[in-house]
Amino acid sequence: MKYALVPLKDLKDLDLNSTDKLVMGMIISLTMNRKECTASNKFLSQQIQVSKRTITKALSKLKSKKLITIKYDNQQRKIISNIVWKDNSMGME
User: Closest Cα partner for 15 from 27, 24, 5?
Assistant: First the structure.
């Protein structure tokens, strides 16, 4: 992954801290070409250099704000970004 995308409206969200925004950007980037990602807390924590517990808290906050959905399929976690992409451009709704 070369970059993390965060919608401007979420960057301005005062309820989200910097880590929450970075995790959101990672998830958006990982789900751009697929509907979902299976990134583990360990992977996400290594990418942004925070603890796995910090990732767990960020994911919980993003889920509570309905920015992501988390589902389980045969005990494998799938994270789905609830950001709607227009066409194949970088425009977001």
Answer: 24
In CATH, what class is 8-81?
mainly alpha
Task: Kindly list the distances between the CA atom of residue 56 and the CA atoms of 12, 19, 51, 71, 84, in Å, as whole numbers in the listed order.
Answer: 22, 11, 9, 15, 24
Query: If DSSP codes are grouped into helix, strand and coil, which group holds residue 18?
Result: helix
**Contact between residue 80 and residue 31 where contact means Cβ atoms under 8 Å apart:** yes
Contact 71, 63 (CB under 8 A): no
Which three-class secondary structure string do you get for 29-84?
HHCCCCCCECCCHHHHHHHHCCCHHHHHHHHHHHHHCCCEEEEEECCEEEEEECCC
pLDDT tens-place string over residues 32-81? 888 899 999 999 999 999 999 999 999 999 999 999 999 999 999 999 99
Q: Which residue has the tokens 């920015």?
A: 67
What is the rounded radius of gyration, in angstroms, for the C-alpha atoms of the chain? 12
